[in-house]
Amino acid sequence: MNESWINNNRKPLIFLGSCLNLEKFTTVCDKHQIDIHGIIDSDYYGNTEEFCGVPVIDTEDNIEKYKDDYNFFCATNYVPLKDKVSVRNAKKRLSLLKLIEDHDLNCISLVHPNAEISQSASIGKGSFVDVFAVMDPDTSLGNHSHIYTFSLIGHGVNIGNNCYVQRMCMLGPEQTVEDNCFFATKSTVSKRYVTIKEGTFVQEGMYVMRSTKKGEVITPKSSPRVYSIIR
């Protein structure tokens, strides 16, 4: 795990968007001596001075003036569900990821020093690995994907872009997770060689022993059958 963008502190950091996990991100920045410049977020600029102690400095319309002098990290939430709040959050995050691509912004990844990352694992740009998360040998995490506390990514698992593995999840071994997937707290996918298709949402406490369909929402009522460890 020698990627130059992991915990890169050569330039001050700007967060694109915000959410309540910002405190987790700033904690990792503090541990790696990453200077935080502020938040660019059109939803807050002009009506909120700061969020989680970080100043709100501008809107996305002025991104070009920051491009050369700062690193960036997209700090919004993403859940592939169809309720009003999830749809709005997803739309905003995807628009920020497009902003990053269109302006060729330099995104860094934030990895907590107490995460356990194999030397043969790889982590893409703009991703986050939380405290006590584990990535076993020969795993990979795509761009702008998040793994949270006490989650285990088993050997040979390849996770795509913009995926979220929430707290106390387990994936693997030797699985493929396509882009834009979400694993809610305490969900497990343990069957070898399965593929979690793009846009899958796995509800909290689900125990999945099969591949999924594109955009599938896994619940206790899913068919073919899955199992729930939360009653």
Provide a descriptive summary of the structure in words.
The protein is an alpha/beta fold and 231 residues long. The chain has a domain at 13-103: Rossmann fold, CATH 3.40.50.20. The protein contains two helices and 24 strands. It has helices at residues 22-31, 84-103; strands at 13-16, 36-40, 50-51, 54-58, 71-74, 110-111, 116-117, 122-123, 128-129, 134-135, 140-141, 146-147, 152-153, 158-159, 164-165, 170-171, 176-177, 182-183, 188-189, 195-196, 201-202, 206-208, 217-218, 227-228. The N and C termini lie far apart (39 Å). The mean pLDDT is 96.
Task: Explain the layout of strands and helices.
Elements: E1 13-16, H1 22-31, E2 36-40, E3 50-51, E4 54-58, E5 71-74, H2 84-103, E6 110-111, E7 116-117, E8 122-123, E9 128-129, E10 134-135, E11 140-141, E12 146-147, E13 152-153, E14 158-159, E15 164-165, E16 170-171, E17 176-177, E18 182-183, E19 188-189, E20 195-196, E21 201-202, E22 206-208, E23 217-218, E24 227-228
